[in-house]
Known about the structure:
Elements: H1 4-21, E1 25-28, H2 41-52, E2 60-62, H3 71-82, E3 85-90, H4 95-112, E4 117-124, H5 126-129, H6 134-150, E5 157-163, H7 164-167, H8 173-178, E6 182-185, H9 198-216, E7 222-226, H10 243-257, E8 264-266
Parallel strand pairs: 1-2, 1-8, 2-3, 3-4, 4-5, 5-6, 6-7
Amino acid sequence: MHSPYVFxxxxxxxxxxxxxxxxxKGFNIGGSPFGDPCKKQAEWARDFATMxxxxxxxxxxxxxASSDCDTLGxxxxxxxxxxxxxxxxxxxxxxxxxxxxxxxxxxxxQQYGTSWLIAVSVGSEDLYRGDTNATTLAHQINExxxxxxGIGACGVEVGHVDTxxxxxxxxxxxxxxxxxxxxxxxxxxxxxxxxxxxxxAYHTNLAKTRAAVKAAKPGTPVWVAETGWPVSGDTIGPAxxxxxxxxxxxxxxxxxxxxxxxxxxxxxxxxxGDKPSFGVVGxxxxxxxxxxxxx
Length: 295
């Protein structure tokens, strides 16, 4: 017979083990498919089913918007029905847009709870683009966290996604300090690295982000929010888009990242109307190359 203390201790250990093993792996997914202005719930359901049918049985996704295309209104019910979890996004560019994004996020949480919600990224690459400054962004991060807490969702983590080159700037440290997590974007392709050097460039830049975060706010987790290699598009120096090179980058980087203890969101599930195109599936939603890692 176990004492109540032993049962309590076992419960705590069980929860800790589950938390330590829970790492979200999935894809970035946009809300506007090629040839169609906005996705509907059925199209989101198709996206989630496509991920889950892959060798990695992925069940997490990062979304960029909340109100645009009624993203959360259409995606969340499909996520709940399929057991998919989402890293939600809130755009911050202008006040009207920002207000609509916050309202859409709060509506989704009030309607569906938080079981579907991994976390919230307030903005995406705003610092890299120069659309804002760290002080303003920090205020917005704190505001979204406060709004969520006001409707009983105090436990939801709130952060920001940006490029490694933005995170390492000392003037952006205030944004880091406001984050519960820091989302790292890194693309060796855009840095004109040959695909053979892709894995080294990936780790080098991720290490730079981690060092900047450790200096500004030790203990803050760094998530891989975006990385990938294009299957088509323009050649940039020695960086060549092709299915063969995207396959190599997947095997070298994705398979490693998905096996590590980091939340990782690959770019992208499908973007077959874009140039360059980073999508791992084509217009028929079939993989463009071998996505296995665990053979």
